[in-house]
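Hey L., structure's done. Input below.
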Amino acid sequence: MNKSLTLAYLYPSLMNVYGDRGNILCLVQRCRWRDIDLKVCDVSMGEELDQTYDLLFMGGGQDKEQRRVAPDLLEVKGEPIRQAVERGMVALTVCGGYQLFGRYYRPAEGSELEGIGVFDAWTIHKGPNEPRCIGNVVALWGQQTLVGFENHGGRTYLGLNTQPLARVVTGYGNNAEDKTEGAAYKNAFGTYLHGSFLPKNPSFADHLIHLALERKYGLSTFAPIDDALELRAHQAALSLTQKRGWWKKARA
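Output:
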């Protein structure tokens, strides 16, 4: 049986900084290599969300873009997204998208932006005198590493009903305080990692695809593919921090 999945790409023209669109390209290609048809549907301002989607993606944006999309996300798409996540839809949100999937984002200037509350999380920008969280990140996701690049002024804090996606080894992560990176609730995930995130972390890309296939078709496994190039990119990112001795300390 030919398998197919559909993905809702939220605000592709507004929320796409630091190559976040590369996450879509990665998912499409990894599905194609397995003869899975992944149909990507752009969902822009004013468009309602069809709850039949198998996956959802929202990238990052500057504060001005977040201020534009926040009311639409809350009033037009928020409730359908929450219901779909509760039923197991797979979602990945990056940086600004991650912040707006929380309870609220309080920017350095202007009014607070209400989020849609998928994650029990909130984000506060502490003002221009607080250093931004910028640089390469290495985080532990279970027994595996995640790598990426972060650049955010907001500090995100997790409540009791949301778990961190990973634990920071090098970098700032959610808030530069508690060593958490990202968020996980059911099959929805948030992260601050750009770069793009998924091409350098093929295991996590496959995790998303597997969750979607398992939910739709009941599949427990699928065929592995040759990740030699992806793992070289992952290792190159790791090498930036391995020279500083973090790996020995982290594995001790």
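The first helix runs from residue 21 to 32. Residues 245-252 have pLDDT under 50 and may be disordered.

-- N.
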